[in-house]
Design goal:
alpha/beta; two-stranded parallel ribbon; Rossmann fold; seven-stranded parallel sheet
């Protein structure tokens, strides 16, 4: 059987690494996004895997724009979501800004005036459940030997200080909805923590995301060596960062294990 992977949000911060890791593991990969464009290569060698991915356009909220791709898809990944109900935070996290925690939580004007779909409920929950439900329509015609298609959802370990509770609530609601379809699909629920990209870290890039990673690493060092990880409330608050490459490796491992389904915790991701 040909290994294939359909990634919704494949040109995003995590999605691009999922596509890369899948290509490197012998998968035929198709990425579906609103723009349908390939991500910009961060290094010359990246062009090799980018050229092997089929970059296509769709609207995840409108199944008619992508149903034809689900027919022969054995594995589907939902890598679409928002941390805040304001699109400007993504630009600031990837920009060259001096770190300012207060500024990073003041992301700018409310985009809801122009984009009513940019909400936790729509982007984190509804888009995932719309995709999962549409995928079940093709389960019988595309399955081989009774195998269920995999539906992987990028959830979250937990919320972050200063982030509205609607973020993690929408993630958990999506998980519950996907698990209800487990008789038709094999659900894989990834729960990463704060993510960074190893390529950015290796070149010493000091964008806000990398600076937050350094702060988390320092906090975890202090919790381990000074507090000995003996205070449970501190352990719950200070969680390790994880690279997009680690998340992608863990995701592919779980997809390739036909016996696995359910939640992949942050600790499991880090060990991958």
């Amino acid at each position: 059987m040909i290994k294939n992977l359909l990634v919704f949000g494949g040109n995003g911060f995590l999605g691009r690494r999922i596509c890369q890791t899948a290509v490197e593991n012998g998968f035929e990969v198709t990425s579906l996004t609103r723009s349908g464009t390939a991500p910009k290569a961060k290094a010359l060698w990246e062009k090799k895997w980018i050229d092997q991915v089929k970059w296509r356009q769709c609207d995840v909220l409108d199944p008619k724009t992508y149903s034809q791709y689900l027919q022969n898809a054995n594995n589907v990944v939902h890598s679409i979501g928002i941390l805040l109900e304001d699109s400007s935070y993504k630009t600031q996290l990837s920009g060259n800004l001096a770190f300012d925690a207060k500024k990073l939580l003041k992301w700018g004007p409310n985009p809801m005036k122009s984009n009513p779909n940019f909400t936790y409920d729509v982007m984190n929950r509804q888009s995932a459940l719309t995709l999962a439900q549409e995928l079940t329509n093709f389960q019988n015609s595309a399955s081989e030997g009774g195998q269920r298609k995999t539906m992987t959802y990028i959830s979250a370990d937990r919320s972050f200080p200063g982030i509205p509770k609607g973020y993690i609530e929408s993630k958990r609601a999506a998980e519950v909805g996907i698990m209800r379809l487990e008789k038709q699909l094999r659900p894989i629920l990834m729960r990463p923590g704060f993510m960074f990209d190893e390529l950015d870290a290796s070149v010493g890039k000091l964008d806000p995301r990398t600076q937050i990673k350094h702060l988390l690493d320092f906090a975890n060092w202090g919790n381990s060596w000074i507090l000995g990880r003996k205070i449970n409330c501190v352990n719950q608050l200070i969680r390790p960062s994880v690279s997009t490459q680690q998340v992608s490796r863990a995701l592919i491992q779980k997809i390739e294990d036909p016996t696995f389904e359910g939640v992949v915790s942050l600790e499991q991701i880090i060990k991958a």
